[in-house]
């Protein structure tokens, strides 16, 4: 069994805050093997990835979207799908105004795998336990309505679990070989966080111990553009 | 808190089996408000969506993929991404050989929302309780490596939760307005099912009661092709 536990009491996060300290204080019973899922928004705030925007001028926000993009993938009306400098394909280069102080926009962390490692290392130093950390964000996708949370950074937890060489109950090698476990964990955690309730952290307890290993979203999840049929 | 509970003891499912009976027997403590996630594979078996293939002739399988497709979206080497007659965009029209008896392939259910309703109605009749049901399948996606489980049918649980008119902690209307809760629930359930372990059902306990309503993947999740930037 896996438990998805929302973490209340993190409060408003400000530039310079140390997330590992805030999480350690809010989750006194954090256990070795837990996976801590932290939303991008509070990571961007702690890392001061906030930039002023003119709330009355939508173009100031649009310019940020282009500045953060390596490439515009699709554009229709107000909707801009970009490939960010990190390699993520998402709306508005991940630049977001929700749950940010009025007059500011939040950019994605410069390196969200590193952000995850910093939180993991901080929790290890403070609590002496080994946990996995996922930085999550909310992305749309083609073909399907609605958004889901995905992993944009990981530390100590597999981005992708490779089942090649695993056999089904009939002894046939599995066709589905690579499961994006970090994305599924991010989606699971979103179910107890909600968008409006201001809960930026959740704990996944009971994860398969084999998922807990060094990994990176950049290395394992971002598909090489040359192998991608949709850009 | 949400609990993800794997259901052991379903056993091998055969054409004509009544999934509601198997689930009711395997989960004696099923509770009102639980969400039952059932993998497509056992739904397809129960509904006898099995067709013989020549295990030594890969072309017999490829022909099925084309028969099940409304349209080929992309093709490279052995990889065929199709739009199925239901409107799903996925590899191989969802035709799958894993965890199926040798010499057979499993097709997607004809109408997986209806499949979910049949299970939900059966559980209501047997146990006198109201639960949500999701039929899940494992799909790839552009731009990101690895596969995740998504909902291909729902009954009694929202495919998408619309947060329009919801405000963030700063009183600003949320930019992220439509959350694909059914897909997040399917991904969460996958975490306790695994691909190789032969657990085809999981229970999500502790879901937000507002998610429990009549819904349909076909109506709420499949994006209208005219509004889709990627087909």
Q: How many helices of chain A in DSSP terms? A: 6
CATH architecture of the largest domain in chain A: 2-Layer Sandwich
Biggest β-sheet strands, sense, barrel of chain A: 5 strands, mixed
Instruction: Quickly name the level 1 CATH class of the largest domain in chain A.
Output: Alpha Beta
Oligomer: homodimer
Helical residue percent of chain A? 25-40%
Mean pLDDT of chain A: 92
- Give the termini separation of chain A: 38 Å
Specify the overall morphology of chain A: globular
Structural class assignment of chain A: alpha+beta
Secondary-structure element pattern of chain A, one letter each: EHEHEHEEEEHEEEEHEH
Strand numbers in spatial order across the main sheet of chain A? 1-12-2-8-9
What does the radius of gyration of chain A come to? 18 Å
When the domains of chain A are counted, the total is 2
Find the biggest chain interface. Answer: A-B, 71 and 70 residues
Q: So, the CATH homologous superfamily of the largest domain in chain A?
A: CofE-like
Poorly predicted parts of chain A: none
